Amino acid sequence: MGTVITLVIIATAVLLAVRSMVRDKKNGKSLQCGGDCSHCGGHCH
Questions:
Q1: For the chain, how long is the longest CA-to-CA vector?
Q2: What's the predicted TM-score (pTM) here?
């Protein structure tokens, strides 16, 4: 039973992380550049 509960907690955390990445991608952000061009030297454009 403990294994099932742990699996559910880990699966939920992974799903939330993926959902956050998809939402960021739809909003124009990427994993490499957080949308703050002052950090990447202005290569966003």
A1: 51
A2: 0.60
